[in-house]
Design a protein that fits this description.
215 residues, alpha/beta, Rossmann fold, 2 domains, seven-stranded mixed sheet, two-stranded antiparallel ribbon, 6 helices, 9 strands, globular
């Protein structure tokens, strides 16, 4: 690898399958991207074991150890800054992050959502799409703002819903897309190809090429 390392801080609450896709596709690979630290709000999150198995630092910040959500997020932000993190990735992190973290990493926090936002935001995107009866759903990678799944959209990919789909069968196909789309978005950001439109701060622009040293 040449050039500086682009360092990720990954926040997880559960199994960490998307973390595993980052480890396999990005960590210490040719794109000079590494997962610097994995943080969870739950000590039993399997994502922590995935991190340790890959030799990645892992830490737990229990919400009950702090006075409020702001204090919890301040402590996490301190840890991320101490690790020199360039981008914060919410990968199955089941807490809404507060300005205490977002303001420390402006336009450097991204989230993965199992629906085509702005449709079906919140914690049950797959179930909501099935219940509503739509024929197409998908996956969204977006910047995080102070709302719930309302930040500027970076990448999306559609997933068809079959007439006999269950939550489990649809979730399997959505997760397959997630495992590909999230690393792709991170690579684009690490290469400096993602930005916000000067004419519309809610619109993400993606350059065809990385900015040159002279730009």
């Amino acid at each position: 690898m040449t050039g500086p390392i682009f360092r990720l801080g990954v926040l997880v609450s559960g199994s960490g399958s998307n973390l595993q896709s980052m480890i396999e596709k990005l960590h210490s690979g040719p794109a000079a991207i590494e997962v610097a630290v994995v943080i969870s709000d739950r000590p039993d999150a399997y994502g922590l074991e995935r991190a340790r198995a890959a030799g990645i630092s892992a830490a737990v910040f229990l919400p009950g150890d702090y006075r409020d959500r702001t204090g919890h997020d301040q402590a996490i932000a301190d840890e991320l800054e101490a690790r020199g993190v360039d981008l914060v990735v919410l990968a199955g992190y089941m807490r809404v992050v507060t300005p205490a973290l977002l303001k420390r990493f402006p336009q450097r926090v991204i989230n993965l959502h199992p629906a085509l936002l702005p449709a079906f935001p919140g914690a049950s995107g797959i179930e909501d799409a099935l219940a509503y009866g739509v024929r197409i759903t998908g996956v969204t990678v977006h910047f995080v703002d102070e709302g719930t799944d309302t930040g500027p959209i970076i990448l999306q990919e559609a997933v068809d819903i079959a007439y006999n789909d269950t939550v489990a069968s649809l979730a399997k196909r959505i997760h397959d897309v997630e495992h590909r789309l999230l690393p792709q978005a991170i690579e684009l950001i690490a290469a400096g190809r993602v930005g916000l439109s000067p004419d519309n701060p809610r619109k993400v622009t993606i350059r065809r090429h990385s900015p040159s040293a002279s730009e």
